[in-house]
Design a protein that fits this description.
Keywords: Glycoprotein, Glycosyltransferase, Golgi apparatus, Membrane, Signal-anchor, Transferase, Transmembrane, Transmembrane helix. The protein is α/β, with parallel strands linked by helices. The protein has helices at 4-34, 44-60, 117-124, 158-166, 191-208, 223-237, 255-263, 314-324, 333-344, 371-375, 385-395; strands at 133-135, 145-152, 172-174, 177-187, 211-217, 241-247, 251-253, 271-273, 275-276, 304-305, 309-313, 349-350, 354-355, 379-381. Helix 6 crosses helix 9 and helix 8 crosses helix 9. Bound molecules: 2-acetamido-2-deoxy-beta-D-glucopyranose (5 copies).
């Protein structure tokens, strides 16, 4: 027979062992989390939960084909913000010199000779991954930021930047949520732009403090460089940014709708935009997006969101930086980002309020001038400064719309 005292001893020992086991397990788990690679691939179970999330969104009317349209349902809104984790990127921009010599290895390849000159140039310099910064703003991400707006721009398009600052890109704080804006630029591609425009740009930046500029030539194929430079910059300086809207400088954007959409969102790995799921590489030489077989030989691109405007969460952007680093650069920037997402096994989500591939085929369609339509959208491609200003004023006037316009 056990005495009460013996039972007490056994009980104490058991408790102690349990306690030790819990501590050991916690320590082991931490260890395996922190010693991981720069980014982790999603396990199949996470994949499942993501597709469940998509299914969930469909049911809640977040996705096309249902009536709720872009508004997230209120049931889905009792959620935590995406967890912002510490990054392993350096603390400052660590690229200070350019030493980019052409990689003539390609010239020995049989197929290289047959390429168009822009593809040749792309391949010869593809290995030059990062360049120094000519204008930086390390302080931009100080503190907690709800939404960081980043806009791809080029040095000569100051009028577009100007109107964006006055319209959808205006920095503000609403209900304690801070919204900040940045423009991403490369170096001027023409000699005559160098002298005059660079000085003007520096003045513009002195006035507004919202320009990031890197020392690579701003060309169409170098847009991918802009993408990876931004991801690296973001991973370096922006620990406490919850969401990023990234877009072109010739689009209409409703930040109000974005904020409302995010309030109702609880998706991990948020990546939403005008997604193409099975786009085919374009093989017609006269097309702007033509890609030769030698550069990409699969029949389809991975799912990707049109670069005109998309939304992602901060932690995902940091993981994308690591994922992109495992890939060779690809000349089309939004397709490249789709490739990086594929590495992470994250599927971008299509949303009908993002119209980056043009609105309707018919340019004279009434929809292009309908403010109630714009009021219900998140991104609409494409509006140049005067039209953007006009539409912005209409949408933000005492506009009465009977209901959110349903599209197509
Ligand atoms: C640039 O790199 C090449 C080869 O990587 C090297 O031979 C050369 O010395 C470097 N030049 C400078 C200025 O660092
Ligand atoms: C060119 O080829 C050589 C030999 O295969 C290789 O060592 C070198 O890294 C290549 N250069 C570049 C820039 O990839
Ligand atoms: C991209 O920029 C680099 C650095 O300015 C330049 O050497 C390269 O030729 C550019 N590539 C293309 C395809 O324009
Ligand atoms: C496609 O390209 C990859 C890598 O460049 C190569 O390994 C593969 O053999 C190519 N496939 C076809 C069908 O050409
Ligand atoms: C485009 O839309 C306008 C107005 O809705 C119409 O008059 C015109 O016929 C349409 N054009 C085409 C090519 O469909």
């Amino acid at each position: 027979m056990l005495t009460t005292r013996d039972r007490w001893k056994i009980y104490k020992t058991a408790c102690l062992m349990f306690f030790v086991a819990v501590i050991t397990l916690t320590v082991l788990q931490r260890g395996s989390t922190y010693s991981g690679a720069q980014f982790r691939e999603d396990s199949p179970s996470k994949q499942e939960s993501l597709s469940e999330g998509v299914h969930h969104m469909q049911k809640k009317g977040l996705l096309p084909g249902t009536e709720g349209f872009w508004k997230a349902s209120k049931q889905a809104s009792a959620t935590e913000k995406p967890r912002v984790t510490a990054s392993r990127a350096p603390r400052t921009w660590d690229v200070t010199t350019t030493n980019c010599t052409a990689n003539f290895n390609f010239t020995q390849m049989e197929w290289f000779g047959g390429l168009e000159s822009n593809f040749k140039q792309f391949l010869l310099y593809r290995h030059c991954r990062y360049f120094p910064m000519t204008i930086n703003h390390p302080e931009k991400c100080k503190g907690e930021i709800h939404l960081l707006i980043v806009v791809k721009s080029i040095i000569t398009q100051y009028d577009r930047r100007e109107v964006i600052r006055k319209t959808w890109g205006r920095e503000k704080e609403a209900n304690g949520k801070r919204i900040k804006t940045l423009f991403l630029l490369g170096a001027p591609s023409k000699e005559e732009e160098k002298a005059n425009h660079q000085k003007l740009l520096e003045y513009e930046d002195y006035k507004y403090g919202d320009i990031l500029q890197w020392d690579f030539m701003d060309s169409f194929f170098n847009l991918t460089l802009k993408e990876v430079h931004f991801l690296k910059w973001f991973s370096t300086y922006c620990e406490n940014v919850h969401y990023i809207f990234k877009g072109d400088d010739d689009v209409f954007v409703s930040i109000e709708n974005i904020v409302e959409f995010l309030d109702g969102s609880k998706i991990r790995n948020l990546f939403v935009g005008d997604v193409l799921y099975k786009a085919k590489p374009i093989r017609k030489k006269e097309n702007k997006y033509y890609v030769p077989q030698a550069l990409y030989n699969k029949t389809h691109y991975p799912p990707y969101a049109g670069g005109g405007g998309f939304l992602m969460d901060g932690p995902l952007a940091r993981r994308l930086f690591g994922a992109c680093e495992t890939l060779d650069l690809y000349p089309i920037d939004d397709v490249f980002l789709g490739m990086c997402l594929e590495v992470l096994r994250v599927t971008p989500v299509k949303h009908n309020a993002f119209k980056t591939f043009g609105l309707v085929k018919n340019k004279s369609s009434k929809l292009n001038r309908e403010p109630c339509f714009f009021k219900s959208m998140i991104v609409v491609h494409k509006l140049l400064p005067p039209d953007l200003m006009r539409m912005w004023k209409l949408v933000n006037s005492n506009l009465v719309c009977s209901r959110k316009v349903n599209i197509l």
